[in-house]
Every structure is written in structure tokens, then in C-alpha cells.
Amino acid sequence: MTFRSLIVGGALALALALPAQAQTLLTGADTDEILNAARGYGSARFVEEDGDPPQITGKIEGVTYQVYFQNCSDNSNCEDINFYLGLADTKLSLEKINEWNYGKRFGRAYIDQDGDACVEMDLDLVNGVTPDYMDGQFGLWSQVMSEFLDFVRD
Q1: Which residue in 5, 56, 83, 86 could disulfide with 118, CB within 3.0 to 4.6 Å?
Q2: 42 or 18: whose pLDDT is higher?
Q3: Range of the domain at 91
Q4: How many structural domains does the chain have?
Q5: Considering only CA atoms, which of 19, 42, 151, 140 is closest in space to residue 87?
Q6: Can you give the CATH number for the domain in which 59 is found?
Q7: How many CA atoms lie within 13 A of 94 on its CB side?
Q8: Is pTM, for the whole model, over 0.90?
């Protein structure tokens, strides 16, 4: 391989890598962009309580869920988000919850302190994610919700 081939190959590799590096990354401080991603799957709004980190309440196919911003500095610049769906008055046995957790990779289910079925999913934002990845996570959350609802109805 000639020196010129190495230079051309290196320049091409650098040119292909630059657009990926130049893409904006979203962190837990980018609450408006995260809200916009949520709105791509249904209605969504901020629910703000004094002294608490941001929270999104949304609906996907008529089902209400929350996104909690967690591990925050001064209730902003949060390190991760937690997608949450709690089904009030939906009682499942521990065996049924374990069946979900055994068979699914995304979304963990549990029985809350009131005996209601819940499912959650976390997203680490410490190093940032691309807008496309954020959109994909809301798509995954939509799928987890749909599958969990089907699961509890069986």
C-alpha cells in the first residue's frame, strides 16, 4: 500500500466520522427535546411540582404513563430518565410478574406497595444520546407498554 493510499484512506475515514461526531447529543438537561420525542408517540406534557425534578406525563394509545427525570443536580441536568406505567387496580400474582421478567429483555415489571402491576424502563443520559436514539427509546417504550398491557389482559 502506498503512502498516498494511506493518506486518502485516512481522509475518507475522517470525513465519514465527522458527521456522526458533529451530531448533537441530548442529556437530561435537554428536557424540551425529550418532551418533543415523547410527543412523537402521543400527547405529552410537563408536570412540574415545586422543588421536584421535571416529569413528563404522556399518553400512548390512550394509556397514561410517566417519564421521571432522576439523579438530578438542582432539579435539572438529570443523569437518567425512568419510563413508568402503573396499572391501578390491576392485580397480578408474583408468578405472573416473574413470567414477564423471565421472558422479556426490556422493561421490568413488579407489584407496587398497593398490589398494582407496574412496568418500568430506564435510560442513562450521562454521556448523551442522539435524537434518533431518544426517539427509538420512546418507540421501544411504546412497544413495552403495548406488550405489557396485552400480557396483563391474558
Answers
A1: 86
A2: 42
A3: 25-153
A4: 1
A5: 151
A6: 3.30.1460.10
A7: 1
A8: no
